[in-house]
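INFO  loader      accepted 1 record
INFO  loader      residues=479
INFO  predictor   begin
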Amino acid sequence: MSDSATPATPVTFPPAFLWGAATSAYQIEGAVREDGRTPSIWDTFSHTPGKTAGGDTGDVAVDHYHRYRDDVALMADLNLQAYRFSVSWSRVQPTGRGPAVQRGLDFYRRLVDELLEKGIKPAVTLYHWDLPQELEDAGGWPERDTAYRFAEYAQIVGEALGDRVETWMTLNEPWCAAFLGYASGVHAPGRTEPAAALKAAHHLNLAHGLGTKALRTVMPARNQISLSLNTSVVRPLNPGSPADLVAARKIDDLSGGIFHGPILHGAYPETLLEATSSVTDWSCIQDGDLDTIHQPIDALGLNYYTPTLVSAADPDDKGPRADGHGASEHSPWPAADDVAFHQSPGDQTEMGWSVDPTGLHELIMRYHREAPGLPLYITENGAAYDDKPDADGRVHDPERVSYLHGHLSAVRRAIADGADVRGYFLWSLMDNFEWAYGYEKRFGAVYVDYASQKRTPKSSALWYAKAAKAGELPDPEGV
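INFO  predictor   done
INFO  writer      dumping C-alpha cells
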C-alpha cells in the first residue's frame, strides 16, 4: 500500500516490525538515595541553582522505581511489544568502580522479569547521560579512564541481565553527553570547554568499543549490540552557496561523522580533524583506539526530532544561536563560530523544533547507504506539546497524533525504499523530567499528574496502541 495514500487509508508495516516506547533512568526512576544509589552528574547539576527550569530535579521524577509493575501493566494495555529503558550506572556501581550493588541490579532484574511476563521485549541502554559523580570528579568523559570504567560497568550489567535481555545499546546520544555537557554546559556536568568536549566524544566512542567487547564476553551470541545516535539532518540554507555547503559539512561532521566515522568505518573524517585543529590536536587518539571503536555491531539506533538548517555566518549578525539545543553563551559546536543556525520552516513543537517527517526519511536513507546491510531501529522519535486534561480528565493531543502519523509514515516510506528498519520506539512512554527544562515540557504519550503520580493515556497513546496491535497506521482523526 502506498504511503502517499490519504490519511484515512491505513499504512501497513512488515509483520515483524517492532512497536515500542522508550524512557531513561534519571528522567523517570526517582528513588535517588535508595538501595545504595549515589549521585550522578544529573543529581549534582539539577541541584545547582539556576541550572534547571524551576529548580526541578529528578529526585522523585515519576516514581517508576516504586511503580514499575503498574507501568509495565500500562505498557501491556497499550500493546507495546518492546520497552527501551536505561540503567542508572550509579545505582549499579555507585562510585563508577568496583563491585556491583546487588540491590540496584535487583531492580532491573525485577523490571526485566515483569516485562517478559507481559510479553514485552526489554531493550537495555547502558548509558543515558547519568555518569556517577565520582567519575566526573576524577575528570569525567574527557579522561580516558572513564571509558575503561564504562567497560567494567557494561560487563556487570551484561552478566546480570544478558541471559534474558537480547537487545542492548551501549550509549544514547553521545553527542549530547559530549557537547551539551562539556561545550555549551546546558547539560550535566555543565562544563564549557570545547577541547574537553572533543576529547569526551572520542572517549565515549572508545567506551562504546570497549563496552561492546565486554558485553560479548559475557552474553549469548544471539544478543544484539548497538548504540543510539542523534546525528543531525543538516541542510544548507542555500544549496547553491558553496559557503553554506561548507557550513553544512562542518556541522554534519560534528554531529554525525565524529561518531559514525570511527564506529562504522574505523576513521574520523579528515574534514572534521582539519576543521577542529584550532581547538585540539587529537592527541587523545592512541594507537589501537580506532580498531577498538570499530567493533562489529548488530544494529544501529537512530534518534530523530527535527532537521538542522545552517548557513555561513554573517560576521555582523550577533543574534542568538537558533540550533534548538538550549540557551547558552557557549556553543556546543567547537570551531564552528563561522556557522549560523536558522529556524526550519513548518509547524513547531513546544521545544521550538520544526515538525518535518521528511528529515526522518532522509536520516534513515542516509544510514541505509552509510552502513548497507546493518539493521536500523528508530530508538527515539516524538514531540513535546502543552498537554492538559479536559474537564472529564481526558488528555486529547491531536498534534502529537499527527506528528506520530507523519513520522511513522516516513519510516514506512523508507522501508519501501529498501531500508531495513526493524522497529520504532516512541519517545516517550510518559511525561517525565526533561533535563534542563525540568517538568515544563511533556513528551509523553501518557500524561502524568506530578502531584498524584496518576497516569492517563493521551489520545496519542490510544492511537499508537491501535497501530501496534494492527501493524498499520490508523486514521489520525479517528481517536
